[in-house]
């Protein structure tokens, strides 16, 4: 049941994966792999509290499981508990294998950004090595600079509660997309950000990236067109152009 659930998770058949993993946990309630995989499924399905419970169970069973810690940290940030998420990402970084360390640093950066701690976020982004492609890394750094300056370029007051909340949703969505590879969960966060404040080209670009990962290319192009209307700054324009090239290339490959 566990092996089939893991396979279904990898091919994004989340409802079926949940059924298999639930069966696996009925047979073996302390199965760490099944608990961690179930946490990832639940997070992607938007059932954050249940995901937290699964990840916490793995953490209690192991001295150091960076996958469970990273998943738990992400779920805490999405649940609005940024400070706990930051602390948990730090734990994930401490015990991570070299292959995972940059990913958890990236998650920590976005947890800081979601909480308005922009200087710390920028420090962690610079520590992530080659985790982000150059256009994406530059766009993120540009956004952090913009946030420190009060979102003037986006026409949004950084101290206004709605703007701060929208910014938190943006960074949560980016974390889900880039760190956890969960575009469906990212789309939910990013649409919430757009509903709060729709005049931010970076949120539109991030939503386009999530839609592209979900194979909804025409919707992604529509979001890029909407982002262009807000005259994005240079680094973000480069990231958007890179996504357009990917989508165009994919369209040319389609028979």
Layout of strands and helices, then pairs:
Blueprint (H helix, E strand, L loop, with lengths): L1 H9 L3 H14 L4 H13 L3 H14 L4 H13 L3 H14 L2 H17 L3 H10 L6 H15 L12 H18 L4 H14 L4 H13 L3 H12 L5 H20 L2
Please tell me about this protein's structure.
It contains 14 helices and no strands. The chain has helices at residues 2-10, 14-27, 32-44, 48-61, 66-78, 82-95, 98-114, 118-127, 134-148, 161-178, 183-196, 201-213, 217-228, 234-253. It is 77% helix and 0% strand. The mean pLDDT is 91. With 255 residues, the chain is mostly helical. α5 (66-78) runs antiparallel to α6 (82-95), α7 packs antiparallel against α8 and α11 (183-196) packs antiparallel against α12 (201-213).
């Amino acid at each position: 049941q566990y092996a089939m659930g893991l396979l279904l998770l990898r091919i994004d058949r989340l409802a079926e994966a949940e059924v298999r993993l639930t069966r696996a946990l009925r047979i073996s309630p302390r199965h760490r792999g099944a608990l961690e995989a179930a946490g990832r499924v639940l997070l992607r399905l938007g059932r954050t509290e249940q995901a937290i419970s699964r990840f916490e169970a793995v953490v209690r069973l192991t001295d150091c499981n960076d996958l469970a810690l990273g998943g738990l940290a992400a779920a805490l940030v999405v649940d609005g508990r940024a400070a706990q998420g930051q602390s948990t990402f730090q734990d994930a970084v401490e015990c991570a294998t070299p292959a995972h360390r940059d990913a958890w640093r990236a998650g920590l950066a976005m947890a800081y950004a979601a909480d308005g701690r922009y200087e710390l976020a920028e420090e962690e982004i610079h520590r992530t090595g080659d985790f982000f492609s150059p256009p994406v890394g530059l766009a993120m750094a540009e956004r952090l600079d913009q946030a420190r300056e009060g979102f003037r370029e986006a026409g949004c007051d950084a101290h206004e509660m709605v703007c701060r909340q929208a910014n938190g949703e943006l960074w949560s969505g980016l974390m889900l997309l880039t760190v956890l590879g969960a575009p469906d969960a990212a789309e939910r966060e990013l649409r919430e950000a757009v509903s709060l404040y729709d005049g931010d080209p970076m949120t539109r670009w991030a939503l386009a990236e999530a839609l592209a990962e979900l194979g909804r290319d025409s919707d992604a192009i529509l979001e890029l067109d909407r982002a262009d209307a807000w005259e994005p700054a240079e680094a973000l324009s480069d990231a958007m152009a890179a996504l357009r090239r990917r989508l165009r290339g994919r369209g040319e490959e389609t028979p």
